Structures are given as structure tokens and as C-alpha cells.
Amino acid sequence: MIVALAGGVGAARFLEGFVRVVPQEKVTIIGNVGDDIEIYGLHVSPDLDIVAYTLAGLVDPNKGWGFRGDTFHCQEILCKYGYETWFHIGDRDMATHLYRTQQLRRGSRLSKVTHDLVRSLGLRVKLLPATDDQLTTYVTSRGRRMHFQEYMVKRGTRPRIDRVIFEGAKSTEPADGVLESITRAKGVLVCPSNPIVSIGAVLAVPKIRAALQRAKTKVVAVSPIIGGKTVKGPADKLMKSLGVEPSAFGVAECYRDFLDTIIIDRVDRKLAPKIEALGIKATVTQALMKTMADKVRLARLALSEIES
Amino acid sequence: MIVALAGGVGAARFLEGFVRVVPQEKVTIIGNVGDDIEIYGLHVSPDLDIVAYTLAGLVDPNKGWGFRGDTFHCQEILCKYGYETWFHIGDRDMATHLYRTQQLRRGSRLSKVTHDLVRSLGLRVKLLPATDDQLTTYVTSRGRRMHFQEYMVKRGTRPRIDRVIFEGAKSTEPADGVLESITRAKGVLVCPSNPIVSIGAVLAVPKIRAALQRAKTKVVAVSPIIGGKTVKGPADKLMKSLGVEPSAFGVAECYRDFLDTIIIDRVDRKLAPKIEALGIKATVTQALMKTMADKVRLARLALSEIES
């Protein structure tokens, strides 16, 4: 059994390759819920959905989120009713949020709802939210606090961020199965996601970080930063403005208390000695995923690092 | 100011003509909420929406409900998640229910939400739910109780109904503005809707029926039964199985405590003496509405009866 810590699009694309190398039944994904947001009274879990839709082959390949070919008729009318529509939700996607919201209102935990959604989409991976408790990622820009989605989607990552807050994190417990999966795993993967906000919000659940620090198996990360830039999302910007080096080295530093190996791109090979000085092995490869073949090759490498 | 008591499709089609004869600002519609139902955790008000969509020129003209050209992508996915989809909700229509539900959860009354929806759709009529309180229409068939929508939509009006129950009706108060509008009206119209369940649920609010009985202005109904049959819906069946004559006479009987005039179709002219024996004037015309011209002519006749 392999455990993967995952954010959104980067993680989902990496995992697409990974489940071609390792049977889905043997993969447990611990997903970020810090970005969860209530929209139109519905509970939206963007990162869990991105991972599920991607692995089910249903995701919009250009956007990286939502259903392929989805329509936005509901939001067109919501706009007419005066609602904001900066957070795009397609009509098919709306079904997921309706289902999740109603099940949560009936008393189901997010982990149970996620399990049912994932099975309905035909997947056999285990997808666990890091926690069933309330954990919300906020950022502040010049002292003004905003939900991470407001920064990310509404403001297009333009504000300069001075602080990231994982509200409620300290009192969260890992969702059922999270700790057990880490303890029993043959290895742990940290997907190429934003180390500050996406993986950061998973690690903000105190017992998850502690379990990784104690883990006896290999913990292997794939750097989401290549040549000082992220492929998608604001990780590089956020790292920089928070005083973390926006590089594979910076990523390794974020995870230094539990990481064994980090897979970095060839363009970053000069960072290897600096990373290894942290006591973390740096494995150099072509880390940019353009094709499914790239994803599969990267997955094989990650697996061999875990097994080494 | 004219007040119209309204159910769903029949009322909406009649009112389409009426607002061509009387300015929208002078029309207050008191709508049925007995058919309201919670679907996917959303508050659906079918009759209010049918009236609003129709008057806004947005309704699906074939179905008589929902938005013209709407898609059903959300429900396709909800079906995948194991939800029932017998109550059809299009993607655009879903927006109305999302808006209504969120506003109600925030503490708005249904009358306020309906007002805002109607204004967003560009209408100037006043559309008032009969009550802001809980009033739900149930029917029983061989002792088995079901929500009216289950009988109407899920079971396609096939069960033989032995009883209609307006649950909660006795303790309902009319929504703000309902009594005032009846008291101040120049006349009251009872639209060609199901007298048992649609208008019946409006009249089940005790103070509404009492206000009509006391009304000093004319109360004019348009019979929804023509030649013993309804144009749409189960009114004829329901009347029959509840021991009410399924005819324009039976309709007049349902309203005998407050009705001044009933407009009936030519095919029912032989019923006129029997109706007039109830102390209700029967006005004979072509009551079947096929074209907008039919609707306008019928509206003019109703208006002249009010003014007579």
C-alpha cells in the first residue's frame, strides 16, 4: 500500500500516471481540504474533486478541474439572481457539491461522502480528506485576510501574500484511516503540489505531520517547482513572498523533518548538493509531465525510490 | 389592483394573457405552495416558478414548467451518485432552487425570496406565496400517504386518491400582503387551476378563504374543467375520486362560499342553470386557450366580469 499526499491539479496529473504503475486498490490518497469553500450554500472540496475527476478520466483536461465538456447554465441564472460567479461551477460539477452538501447535512462525515463519490465515479483508490474537521486556508495581504479561493480564483493570485493561516488546524484530528494508512504504508509520496498551501494544509493536521516524522518507510516527494517556477498555481509566488526559496530546494526545506528523497528536474540539478546537505536525497530526472508516458515514467521512478 | 389565485400551468397560461390586458404593476398573484418539495436538499416551489417563468417568457412551452431549452446535466450526474431523478430539474432551474434555499436558510421568508426572484426575472407583477408557513399537500391512496409530487410526477397520477391533506394548513397565516391585497383589490380572479389541490391549498390558509368570503369585490373563476376533462393535470380524476362532480359545476361548488361568477366553456353551457342555482353567475365562452389571442380574449372577459 502506497500513501500519497495530494493537492489539486499537479497531484492529480502525477497520480494519473501512478495508478497505471500501482493498482488503484493499493493507493491511498490523503487530500487537501483547506481550500474547501461554501458556494451558494454548497460544500465544495476542489482538491478532492480534481483528484477524483482526473483519476476517473472525467476531468476537463484544459482547465484541470471540473467535468470535461461541462455547461455552466446554472451559474448563468445564478448570475441573473445577483450571485457572484467568480468561482466557476459547471452543471455536472454542481451535482457533486449538491450530493456532498446534502450528505454532510444528514450527518455523514466528509470522508464517508468522499468514499461514496469516488466509488460512484468507478474508482478503486482510497481518497481520504486529511481531516473531517473544519480546517480552512486563509491568506493575508497587507493585513487583509481572505479565503484561499478568493486569493487564487477571484483575485487571480495577484495580491502579495504575507501570511498563510490554516484556521482550525491545531484542533483537527486526521480523518479515519489516515494515520493507519501512513503507519502501514510501504512508502509515502508527496505529490507535486503547492508545498505551502496544498500539502501545507495536509501537514497542518498535527498528527499527520507527526506520523510522517515517525514513519519507518521512505517518504518521497516530487518537486512541483521546476527551474524556479510552478507548472500551475501560485506555489512559486507564495514561497517567495513567505521567505521560502522558490525552488526544489525550498520544497525540500518545507518537508525536511520527514522527507527522505525528492525528485527534481534536470534543470535543477545544481540544487542537488544543497538538498543533500539537508540529509535529503535528490534524484534528478525529467520531472515535467507533458504526456502520459512522462507521468508513468515519473511514477515508476517515485516507486523505485520508495522501494530502494 | 386585481388579485389572482393561481396554481401552476393552467394559471400561468391564463395570466400570460391577463398581463397583456392589465399592467403587471396592477396584478397580485397569490400562488400555491402546497406542492413545494425538498429535492436534493433544495426547496422547490413548482407553482411559483411555473408562474414566474411563464410570465417572464422563459418557460419551456411544451412542458409548461422549467426553462425553455434547459439541459439536465446536473441530474445526470446526481443519478450516477444514486439519487432519484423522477422530479426533473434542469440546470437553469436548479439555480432558482439554489438561490431560494440559500436565502431561506439565511432567514429570508419565502415571500421575500419570491419577490426577489420575480424582480430578477424582469417581472413587475407581485407574486406572493399564499403563506410563508409550512403547508404541504399530501394525498392518500388506499391509506398510503404520499407527497402530492410523488402522486403527480413519480406515479404519473395513476393511484386512485381517497383523501387530500393540507398538512399544517390550519395553523398557517397568509404571507405578508396577501390579506391586504384581497381587501383592497378591485376584483379577485380564480385562475383555471386544480380546484382541489392547487387553489385548494391556497384556500386551506384559513384567513385567505375567510377574506374571500368577506370580499366586497367580485370573485370570478375560470373553469379548468372543459367537457368534464382538464386540459392539463389530474383535476378531473381527483374531483371524481373525492366525490366532486368533475365539471365546471363541480368547480363552482368548490368555491360556492365566495364565488360570484364562473366562466365556463361553450361545451358546458347546459351546466349554467345548475351553477346559477348555486347563486353563481355562469358566463359562457370559448374557454380553451390555444393561442395568445384566446388567452387575451379570456382575460378581457374575466376583467369585464370583475368590472360588471
CATH class of one domain in chain A: Alpha Beta
* Estimated structural class of chain A: alpha/beta
How would a textbook summarize the main sheet of chain A?
A: 7 strands, parallel
Mean pLDDT of chain A: 97
- What oligomeric state do the depicted chains represent? homodimer
Radius of gyration of chain A (CA) equals 18 Å
CATH topology of one domain in chain A: Rossmann fold
Q: What is the strand content of chain A?
A: 15-25%
Please tell me the CATH architecture of one domain in chain A by its name: 3-Layer(aba) Sandwich
Number of DSSP strand runs of chain A? 14
Count of DSSP-assigned helices of chain A: 13
Shape of chain A: globular
Give an overview of the whole structure.
The structure is a homodimer of 308-residue chains. Chain A has a domain of 179 residues: CofD-like domains (Rossmann fold, 3-Layer(aba) Sandwich). In chain A, helix 1 crosses helix 13 and helix 7 packs parallel to helix 9. Chain A has 308 residues and is an alpha/beta fold. Chain A has a 7-stranded parallel sheet, with helices on both faces. In chain A, strands 7-6-8 form a 3-stranded antiparallel sheet. In chain A, strands 3-4 form a two-stranded antiparallel sheet. Chain A has 13 helices and 14 strands. The first copy, chain A, is globular, with a radius of gyration of 18 Å. The model of chain A has no long low-confidence stretch (mean pLDDT 97). In chain A, a hairpin with a 2-residue loop joins strand 6 and strand 7.
